[in-house]
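Folding problem:
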Amino acid sequence: METLGKFMIALMQPGNWPFLVVFAVVLVGLAVFLAFWITAYVKKERLDLSHKFGPLWVHVSGGPNDPKTQPRPFQKLLYVKVNFLANRKTKASPFYVRTVDRLDGPDRAVPVFDEAVYYTLKMFPEKRTLAPEPDQSSGVVDPRLVIPWLSQLSFHNDMARRVKEMVDIEAKADSDTMLTVSHFLNGLQAGNQDFCTFADEDAESLRIIVDFSSIPNAADRISLGKCELLVENRPVDTDDLKYQRCGESVYMAHCKDAKKGSLLKMDFTFKDWDGVAFSGD
């Protein structure tokens, strides 16, 4: 303590005052810097601070980057809710007859033996002019909704509007998000027991969820067979692909870092498909 006291007395001599000023400025700067980082940590956001100390300007910046200023990567989610499921060959009558407004003549009235509702959500890195969203099935596609909102759906061209198996849904708006909802009718007949989605561009997340929970005896009758990522119709072996049963008769497949054009596919097996197990009668 005596040595420290002598040091402090010597430090207070007039000749050492410039050093004391510099020392005080450094201490204040360290205190401001520490307070800044504590604030940034608590608020979990990036902060910038400038302040004048005598003839000096001190500017400190840092902390977490504001996520609002960072472009989010492209992500795509397909959620499929299977409402009805029966084999057309063995079920005498359909569940109901659906009117598909975009079709003409006898194609407008569709007897429904299986129905799956596709909710497709795409989140882009930035606001852009949205390209048409293609929907395709071995059965009939009945698009019902698009967001950004349109009170009347429009299609890529008039000829394609009359093709029952496929459709391009147009949003006609600039947005960083697009949601489409379509009913796929009779698309699970004749061994077509798979669901798939593709990466429109390099995707941080590509995900499918298939929900059979409305189907009677689904837990006993429906099982996930194979899940794979395809590029140019060839399976890709990757640790980024995960799949699982995530609820009562609900299945999910997820792929991280999917390249543009990749196809995520889930194949299912329907047991006793030739019986009436799925009819719900």
User: Anything to note?
Assistant: Residues 75-270 form one domain. The mean pLDDT is 82.
